[in-house]
# Entry
Amino acid sequence: MSNKRCFGYLFFGLLICNLIQAQSNTFSKLYPLIPLLSSTFTSIEIDDNSYYVIGVGSIDAPGYPAASLFMRTNLNGEIEKFSSIIDTNNNFETWFQSLVMDHDGNLVTHGVSLNPKDSNFLSFIKYNKDGELILLKTFSASQIRMFEMSHCMKKNERDEYYMTVRSNPDEYNSSFFNFKLDKNGNILWKREFKMNALNCSLIRMALTLNGFIIGVTISPDSYPQKNGINQYAILSFDSIGNVLWENIPTVRKIGLEHMVVLK
# Structure
C-alpha cells in the first residue's frame, strides 16, 4: 500500500461491468464517494435481485483509520443501500476480502483490524442484506507477529469457512496458517504449515472434494529487496489443513512474443 498522498478527492473505484443474462444488459458505473480520499473495491456477490459490494475506505491518505464499506445496488447498478462500519477499538484494513452469501441470506466476509497500538487482528464479519452488522469477531493466528493478513476465504455447503493467513513475526519472514471457522466465526481448527518461500504477496483458494488448494505468488527473497524473483506455487491440503503436496514450477523467462497487448 503506497504511502504517497493522493491529490484531491479520489473516486471509489467501483467499476462494475457485468453481463446480466436474464436481462441481456451490460452497464458500467462509477460511484463518487466524497469525502473519501482513498477507497478500494474488494469483492462482489450477486443474488436474483441485487449486487452486494464491499470495500475499504479512508478519509485520510491511503492508510489509517479505515472503514469497511458496504453497498447494495439493483441489477442496473443503482445504489439502494450504502453503509460503512468503523471499529472504534481497531482500524479496519481489509485489502483481500472475499464475500460469500450463507444459507440464511447473510453476507459474510473477512479482513484485518489494526489497533492504534500496532496490534493486528483477523476479522470475521457478517452483514444482513441491508448492510447492517450482525457479527464481528476478531482473532489471531500467532501471538508473535508484526502483521497478519487473511488473504482468502471459501465457504462449504455447511456454512463453514476455510481461510489461509500469512503472519509476519518480523519485518522479513512469513509464517502460514490455515483456519476452519464455523458459521459464527468460531475457530474449529488452526494448522500452521511451511512453504518454501520467505514471503508471498497474494493467495487464492479453491475447495476440492477432500480438502482445498491454494495458489500463491511467492518470493525466495525477503520482501524489501527489489531484485527478488517472483514465482508461483500451488499447495494441496486435506480436510484438516495438512499439506498433501506443494508444486513450485521452474522459473523461466517469458519473451515479449508471449505477451498479449491490448489495443
